[in-house]
Design goal:
about 280 residues; Rossmann fold; 8-stranded mixed beta sheet; 8 strands; globular
Length: about 280
């Protein structure tokens, strides 16, 4: 097959790394984006056995930074005028309130604005391929929350888990709104719940939050290979070639939460996200 390029963020651990491996096996080329240079080199070494010559490209960036996300996305766009898939997979859970160097709450910056900036920057390359796909890793954790635009970044009252839940709702709002905005372009946009997966997710925390999450993962979580299946399916399957604006679980379309279909909240989130990004990049 002609070379097809898949961009995968958060590709040094967990389901991102598994997705990269399986997508390489299918004959695609991959560009892997990660924060840690050593981990990127290690993943490159691990995955090289599945790659043909020059089919793995590596990009280092802190995706909690709007400026770094924009810069690396522009570099990728320059390197790849035609992109077939953007798999927005990078994300984290922060149990304690933390702020990025740009003054944004870390969960909001990494889990939401990162997707927003990456996709926006790569739209020309995705459209140029004639069959672009944007796949956003969301989560079933979005059930049970709605957005409060007076407390969007946990300014008033911060709960690490609630903020994570809301960031995953933002991923779904972003998917639905972007789908509507790209109707005239040859790009599909879908999101997914990977399941509760045993990865290093949340291990950046300390104390009770980390211990509780590891305990739950050991008891209940599926392995990374199963957790990556829906990401791989949405990125590569012909079954969803013309499907857009969906929320998937176990490679099947599902209904997301009732608040996720709130059109006014969706539009408001887009507007506020756009304003924040412009203010940082000006």
């Amino acid at each position: 097959m002609a070379e097809k390029i898949v961009i995968i963020t958060g590709a040094t651990d967990g389901i991102g790394k598994v997705a990269a491996r399986e997508i390489l096996k299918k004959g695609y080329s991959v560009a892997l984006v990660g924060r840690n240079k050593e981990k990127l080199a290690q993943v490159n070494a691990e995955l090289s056995q599945y790659a043909v010559k020059n089919s793995i490209s590596l990009y280092q960036a802190d995706l909690s930074s709007v400026k770094e996300t924009k810069k690396v996305a522009e570099k990728i766009q320059k390197d790849f005028p035609k992109i077939h898939v953007l798999l927005n997979n990078a994300g984290a859970f922060f149990s304690e309130h933390s702020v990025t160097k740009e003054g944004l709450e870390s969960t909001f910056a990494l889990n939401h604005l990162n997707y927003f900036v990456f996709a926006d920057t790569l739209i020309p390359s995705l459209h140029a391929s004639g069959e672009g796909r944007i796949v956003n890793v969301a989560s079933g954790a979005h059930f049970g929350v709605s957005l409060d635009f007076d407390n969007l970044q946990g300014e008033v009252k911060f709960s690490g888990w609630k903020q994570y839940q809301k960031s995953k709702l933002m991923n779904i709002y972003f998917t639905y709104e972007l789908d509507e905005r790209l109707k005239e372009k040859s790009i599909t946009v879908n999101c997914l719940h990977p399941g509760f997966v045993k990865t290093k997710f949340g291990h950046n925390n300390i104390g009770f939050a980390k211990s509780a999450l590891q305990f739950a993962q050991n008891l209940f979580a599926m392995n990374e290979d199963k957790g990556a299946r829906t990401s791989i399916f949405l990125s590569t399957s012909d079954e969803v070639k013309n499907v857009s604006g969906g929320y998937f679980e176990k490679s099947k379309a599902r209904k997301s939460s009732k608040p996720s279909y709130d059109l006014s909240a969706r539009k408001e989130l887009w507007k506020k996200s756009e304003q924040l990004v412009k203010a940082i990049l000006k």
